[in-house]
Amino acid sequence: MTAVPVLPAADVPDRCVRPECVAGCATPTARGDGRRGVLAAAARFAGVIAVLLVTVGVLQVVHWTPRYGRTSRSTRSLRRCSRWLVRVLGVRVEVRGEPHTGGGLVVGNHVSWLDLIVLSAQAPQRAVAKDGVGTWPVIGGLARRTGTLFLRRGLHRDLPESVAQMTAALRRGHRVQIFPEGTTRCGQAVGEFRRAGFQAAIDAAVLVHPVTLAYRDGTGTPTTAPAFVGDMTVVESIRAVVRMSALTVQVHWLDPIPALAGSGRAATDRRRLAAQAERAVAHDLGQPVVRRDSAWRGDAVA
After folding, report:
1. Model pTM?
2. Which pLDDT score, from 0 to 100, does residue 274 have?
3. From CA 269, how far away is CA 134, in angstroms rounded?
4. Strand-pair category, 247-253 with 91-96
């Protein structure tokens, strides 16, 4: 594997965490014009609402089932509903590789709320999200019913408990998904992977599954339309996606990385494991890795 460029945050003109970067860090997005385009966008938006309502109903039924195995049933149901949502949005998904069977830690680059929908449509999994997501209308309730692990980021005293939650889920054979950058970016660079989440993979002795997501418009050109950054609301971000005349997301499942100490393999630690996954993701996307400013440094979970 060729070396991946590493840049300090100050050397990257586009920090990819501001609303204005959506208009500037990739080529303009093709959108549907005229009355036909407006009607198509309205139909997609209505479809999103319909699928969300159906998903709420499905997960409520699952919630009434026996407690044993309920989380697995919920994640499988979410996978089906996520596939419906991807179709309603008119998003085309191109997949290379496949997620490894069984439990494991899924890590990848983070652009949008759409990342989670696309990955959920690929395989049953439990997401890791900041605790504020649990308060979002509709989405928060869906997240709670599908076994999402809510974590308080940036508080070191909460790290042991957070890692313990993830470790327990991994040991039960669940696939747990995190975005180690800790924030969304709209393209051009991969953020430094935070390390604490990888400790759970080591403690549970499971595989780490790196995955990359790249968004393209109808011409195959990189687009920032799905980016959910800065002060954007969820509704504004959804509106940007449904207004597109075509959107393709390229999903590439990379080779899994063992998080095993011993068993004939060299012992590893979370720093080394995070660096391996980070390099694999950045190399596949052809993007540099941006190191956080000293004020951002820490060991947050996701």
Report:
1. 0.83
2. 93
3. 31
4. parallel
Complete DSSP assignment for the chain: -PPPPEEEGGG-S--S-STTHHHHSSPPPPB--HHHHHHHHHHHHHHHHHHHHHHHHHHHHHHTS-STTHHHHHHHHHHHHHHHHHHHTTEEEEEES-PPSSSEEEEE----HHHHHHHHHHS--EEEEEGGGGGSTTHHHHHHHTT-EEE-TT-GGGHHHHHHHHHHHHHTT-EEEE-TTSS---SS-EEPPPSHHHHHHHHHT-EEEEEEEEEEETTS-B--TT---TT--HHHHHHHHHTBS-EEEEEEEPPPEE--SBTTB----HHHHHHHHHHHHHHHHT-PEEEPPGGG-S----
CB 12 within 8 A of CB 291: no
Residue with token string 């919920």: 74
Distance CA 116, CA 112 (A): 8
Beta bridge partners of 73: none
Residue 224, Cβ density class (10 Å: 0-12 exposed, 13-18 middle, ≥19 buried): buried
Q: Note the pLDDT tens digit of each residue in 152-205.
A: 665 566 678 888 889 999 999 999 999 998 888 776 788 899 888 899 999 999
Length of the chain: 302
The residue-averaged pLDDT of 201-219 equals 92
Evaluate if residue 108 carries a pLDDT over 90.
yes
Please report, for the chain, the start and end positions of each structural domain, with discontinuous segments joined by +: 6-296
Q: Give pLDDT, residue 27.
A: 42
Q: For residue 80, give both structure tokens.
A: 């089906």
